[in-house]
Amino acid sequence: MRTVQTIDELKAIISNHKQQTIGFVATMGYLHEGHKTLLTKARAENEFVVASIFVNPAQFGPNEDLDRYPRDIERDTKIATEAGVDLLFVPTPDEMYPFESGITINAGEISTKLCGATRPGHFDGVLKVVSKLFHLIQPTKAYFGQKDAQQLAIIKLFVEAYNFPLEIVGVPTVREEDGLAKSSRNVFLSEKERDEAPHIYKALNLAKDTWLRTKDIEGAIAKAKQYINENTSGKIDYLEALAYPTLQPVNEYTEEVLFATAVFFEKARLIDNMIVNIKEVQ
Fold it and tell me: Where on this chain does (R)-pantoate bind (predicted)?
């Protein structure tokens, strides 16, 4: 595996692999089993695999955890090598954003729901970095985890709407044995919070099961919120059920329902979700 830090180096290597299928996984580092699953799938489906590690300042708000975001490039390099990555791109912020153009990307109305409701500009920053990475790497397929379901929906819509010549592949959430979704931010949980955190996924299952039984979305969400409040010390940012991938209210024409939540603990904000295909559960 080769590791490069500059755009010029990246482009020079990519130019030698344009006749091959290129799989790409964008990460912010501190890799875990969820990332490894993305990398392994990219390796299985492509001739050349590129991964990036870049803690993107454009998607962090002024009071968010940019400086505290966990970093361990030595460990990440080892995991990427073991997963069969051919090229690792590790740019600095100055390399990715050498000047301020004044040109922005607006992720639109879909970005104002769920995480976007309390993180204005977050998904604008996500699209800013992935658009640059897609242009530089020119992947055949790019892989994103379903744990960030809103992000996955927005990137898919962006690629389709603006005719990026690649396929976005969503990969199911990877979980610990107790159900907690794997996340780089789990390292910030206290021992007590780590014991409580699996209740987030249990609450989503409770919401799903209650809705399937009663067809009462509001009642199902209320029951799930009560469960989190009674079983964790976390503070709910949101817990909602929306049509997926549009993130519009559920109606009689909805085919897939996204149950999604974000919960604040003292030093970590955890997100999780599940997507229910209505035809498969009827």
Answer: 59, 151
What residue segments make up the domains of the chain, in order of their start? 2-171, 184-275
Annotated binding residue 34: yes
Query: Catalytic one among 17, 35, 122, 199?
Result: 35
Q: Could you report the per-residue pLDDT of 222-265, keeping only the tens digit for each?
A: 999 999 999 999 999 999 999 999 999 999 899 999 999 999 99
The superfamily CATH assigns to domain 2-171 is HUPs (3.40.50.620)
Does residue 35 carry a catalytic annotation? yes
pTM over 0.90: yes
CATH of 184-275, one of 3.10.20.310, 1.10.260.40, 3.40.50.80, 3.30.1300.10: 3.30.1300.10
Residue 60 structure tokens: 């962090």
Please check if 29 is assigned to a binding site: yes
85 contacts 43 by C-beta, under 8 angstroms? yes
Q: Which of 181, 184, 125 is nearest to 154 (CA)?
A: 125
Q: What is the C-alpha separation between 269 and 262, in angstroms, rounded?
A: 7
Angle at 170 between CA 206 and CA 52, to 5 degrees: 120
Q: How far is CA 9 from the centre of its chain?
A: 27
* Residue 108, marked binder: no
What pLDDT, in 10s, does the model give residues 88-139?
A: 999 999 999 999 999 999 999 999 999 999 999 999 999 999 999 999 999 9
